[in-house]
Structure formats: structure tokens, C-alpha cells
Amino acid sequence: MIKHRGFPGRMPGTDYQFTIRRENKKGATPLIARERYADRRPADRRADAAFVEALWLYFGDQPFERGNLDAGRLSWLLGREVIALDDPFDPEDYEALLQLDVARARASFPEAFDGSGHWEGSA
Predict the structure, then answer these.
(1) Residue 111 carries which DSSP code?
(2) Who contacts 53 (Cβ-Cβ below 8 Å, separation ≥6)?
């Protein structure tokens, strides 16, 4: 499992995890496309936006391996802002290739790209 050094481990001041420390001996937690409903808590929406911003700043529009990125956080974005590049896609593979769909991510989380987000806005 590749570790994305320099990628934020969590959203500061919260328990929203962005990376894992070590791989699961029983295998990777499967990625599943989770439905985001309009009534999600504001804190959850902020965590999604901060994660998208971190993906953008770290990977840009380039493909990346799943590696140590948190399965739960990726699952909230999978199939929309984060797309699988492998065909067939193995949701339990730490080496699965993913990519940020920049156009869709900009539409869903504009604050992640305009400099007012969590990481750039605090710099």
C-alpha cells in the first residue's frame, strides 16, 4: 500500500479521517459509492469539501492510487467527484487507480478550488 506522504491525515480540529496508518491485514475496506442526501450535516459537507480540496492540491487532475486514503471518505465521492480508472474496478484494491473529476468536483465543491477552502484559505 502506497502512503501518500504530505497528504493531510485528518481535518484539523475534527475526527474526520482522510488517511489510514496501515493496511488492513484482512484486506482493504471496499469502496462503495455512497448516496449524499441534501440533509447531510454541515460538518460532513465541510469534511467532504476539505477532502476534495486536499485531493486537488495533492494530485490535481492526475490519476492516483487509492493507497492509504480513507475508504469511508473516498466512498462519499466515488462515482461522482472521484472516478475509478481501472476496468474492471476492484473496490478492495489498495493499488486501484482513481482520478478527481475536476469539472464535477468544481460544481459540487466550489470552495475547494477558489482559494477560500480549508487548506488554501488558512494559508
Answers:
(1) G
(2) 109, 111, 112, 113, 117, 118, 119, 120
